[in-house]
């Protein structure tokens, strides 16, 4: 009986760990994945709700919403709010997007979280600025058997809390054009009765740092729903 309990505990522990890891695919990253042409930096800024995503190590909770705040040189400060529904907590994170090459037409950003550069770049693959956007990243890797593989990160954002079937079909088509697997996308909870009507306004909570610093991550109890 004791052994069974240990096995069950180990399974739950491993499931929790891998649920927050990046997705792994065979082979190297897709080559020459194009980003948005003639990207309008100012128009892209503002609030974006997460609708779908790959499992990842940065944002793991539900009700996720990001506010892109313009910085110099076409960079962004991201204020990210997300909620753990079971624990009834809200987490606020500050990320910084630093454009890889300022004058480049490629919309590729280095990501800084907790004042450290993340392994992934985030590429803005597509946006119509008013409905949805697709942000993706990929890094090459080799497993323990020295086999080529890659890790990918993918976010589908919307200006509203929902996307209709037509928009979702368009997203799948765009991802297919880039050779990116949409079947692994997971839905992100955004129902107002669960998440409330919260947008990433970067509120200051008691116990959180006052300054907007990219190393900030703060989790506090919160009231859910409406």
UniProtKB/TrEMBL annotation:
GO terms for cellular component: cytoplasm. The keyword Kinase does not apply. Residues 1-19 form the signal peptide. Keywords: Signal. Residues 40-190 form the Lipocalin/cytosolic fatty-acid binding domain. InterPro entries: Calycin (IPR012674), Lipocalin_ApoD (IPR022271), Lipocln_cytosolic_FA-bd_dom (IPR000566). Coiled coil: none annotated. GO terms for biological process: lipid metabolic process; response to reactive oxygen species. Belongs to the calycin superfamily. Lipocalin family. This is Lipocalin/cytosolic fatty-acid binding domain-containing protein. It comes from Ignelater luminosus. The lineage of its organism: Eukaryota, Metazoa, Ecdysozoa, Arthropoda, Hexapoda.
């Amino acid at each position: 009986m004791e052994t069974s309990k240990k096995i069950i505990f180990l399974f739950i522990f491993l499931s929790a760990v891998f649920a927050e890891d990046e997705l792994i695919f065979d082979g190297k990253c897709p080559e020459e994945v194009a980003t948005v042409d003639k990207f309008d930096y100012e128009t892209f800024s503002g609030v974006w709700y997460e609708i779908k995503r790959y499992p990842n190590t940065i944002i793991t909770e539900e009700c996720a919403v990001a506010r892109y705040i313009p910085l110099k040189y076409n960079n962004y400060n991201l204020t990210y709010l997300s909620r753990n529904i079971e624990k009834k907590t809200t987490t606020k994170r500050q990320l910084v997007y630093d454009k890889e090459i300022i004058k480049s037409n490629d919309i590729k950003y280095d990501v800084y979280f907790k004042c450290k550069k993340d392994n992934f770049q985030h590429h803005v693959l597509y946006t119509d600025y008013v409905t949805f956007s697709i942000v993706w990243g990929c890094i090459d890797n080799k497993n323990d058997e020295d086999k080529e593989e890659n890790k990918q990160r993918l976010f589908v954002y919307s200006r509203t809390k929902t996307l209709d079937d037509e928009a979702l079909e368009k997203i799948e088509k765009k991802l297919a054009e880039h050779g990116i697997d949409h079947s692994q996308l997971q839905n992100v909870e955004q129902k107002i009765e669960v998440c409330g009507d919260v947008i990433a306004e970067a509120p200051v909570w008691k116990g959180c740092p006052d300054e907007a610093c990219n190393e900030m991550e703060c989790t506090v109890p919160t009231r859910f729903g409406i």
